[in-house]
Amino acid sequence: MGEIQAFNEDLVPDVAGLYLRAMAGRPGPAGKALQDYFREIFFANPWASPDIAPLVYLDRGKAVGFLGVIPRFMDFRGRVIRVATVSQFMVDRKQHRGPAAIALLRRFFRGPQDLSYTDGAGEESHLVWTAAGGHGARLYSFTWQRALRPVRAARDFVDRTTGTLRLLARASLGAAAPLDALLTRLPGPFRPPPSAYVSRQVTAEGLLRSIQEIGWCEPLKPHYEASSFGWLTSQAAAAHSRGDLCMAAVRGPDGDLCGWYVSYMKRGGPSTLLQIGVRRRDQFNGVLAALLRDAGARGSSAVKGLAIPQFLVNLTQQFCLFRQASTCVLFQSGDPDLAETILRGRAALTGLDGERWLDFPGHSMD
Question: Of the candidates 56, 70, 71, which has an alpha carbon nearest to the alpha carbon of residue 16?
């Protein structure tokens, strides 16, 4: 019978080693860089609190399960609520076959947070969350992608396959690559949309000012403060393998500030949107078009992101394709009004507020 206790720095080497076995399929001890990243994310984050802490499942003194937790804050109908975001939820099945995952979640759900949340879960995690009393937020649990260089984007997809199919497909797509230059100039779904909106790259301070000036329309929305926002964006910017982190304020044709976006821009690969916001609903198309234009100018093959329920029609109008490979967004709350708000798609749940900005080795953005 195992026991659950709060994560502490003495357990970092053991938990980092568990990560390598359970998440990366690699035996052996974890290196210093990975251990330091665990310390930075779970102990040095500006929201760290002993009453909403990561949990470790120990079996005969050895860590065989881990539930990473980062406390955050959100606004819900005019009041600030505590949110516990989950990352790196893992169990070593070779060493432990008991109910460690459900035990960890049930202990976690008894914490003081108003909302428990993750946006990087698979279908197996969905089953465990449901068994422990959580829910899947289906309206947020699929992704969209807008191709900017269709042949290059197809090659990105093929790169995920294996064997002879991958070799044949890469050879044929490589020969067809010059078609991108033609397809992006013809009227149709691959041409970057025109936009009279002007984007300007800003610092973390400038982005925060823009967000605070524009605000959010949803009843459940992020709550940011200057000191913690700077740490958050600096951590997101450190994920160099995903591209350059671009933070932009967007102005309309009249010169008024109307929106912003935060996105990884990757030359030769897909850019990943973390957050987009607008002052008014009718300005979303213009801000999105500015993002697509900027990504195309930086050489990205496509732009992708998590679903934004209130703007699904707008995304469709911009020739975005949708897919749901696995469940992404899971949550639990004892507040029925808060839970109903999420289930109805009326929450601003963005990549900066879950775990999609984290840079654990092999951390998936899909």
Answer: 56
Query: Does residue 183 lie within any of the structural domains?
Result: no
88: amino acid identity, one letter? Q
Per-residue pLDDT tens listing for the chain (366 residues): 689 999 999 999 999 999 998 887 777 788 999 999 999 999 999 999 999 999 999 988 899 999 999 999 999 999 999 999 999 999 987 766 568 899 999 999 999 999 999 998 888 888 899 999 999 999 998 899 999 886 766 666 555 555 555 555 555 555 555 565 545 555 667 777 788 999 999 999 999 999 999 999 999 999 999 989 999 999 999 988 889 999 999 999 999 999 999 999 999 889 999 999 999 999 999 999 999 999 999 989 899 999 999 999 999 999 999 987 766 899 999 999 999 999 999 999 999 999 999 998 754 445
Under 8 Å between Cβ of 251 and 258: yes
Residues 207, 210, 214: CA angle, nearest 5 degrees: 145
* Domain of 207, in residue numbers: 143-148+192-323
Q: Could you tell me if residue 136 is inside a domain?
A: yes
What distance in Å separates the CA atoms of residue 289 and residue 258, rounded to the nearest whole number?
13
Nearest to 342 by CA among 352, 330, 357: 330
Cα 303 to Cα 186: distance, rounded to the nearest angstrom = 19
**What's the total number of domains in the chain?**
2
CATH code (residue 81): 3.40.630.30
DSSP type of residue 216: -
Please report whether residue 358 resides in a domain.
Answer: no
Please state, in angstroms and rounded to a whole number, the distance separating the CA atoms of residues 284 and 362.
32
User: Scanning the structure block, which residue is given the tokens 């269709």?
Assistant: 150
Alpha carbon 45 to its chain's center = 17
Query: Domain check: are 17 and 132 in the same one?
Result: yes
In a domain, 335, yes or no: no
Query: Long-range contact list for 125-131, CB < 8 A, 24+ apart?
Result: 125/89, 125/327, 125/330, 126/327, 126/330, 128/101, 128/102, 129/105, 129/330, 129/332, 131/102
Would you give the distance in Å from CA 331 to the centre of its chain? Answer: 14
The three-class DSSP label of residue 283 is helix
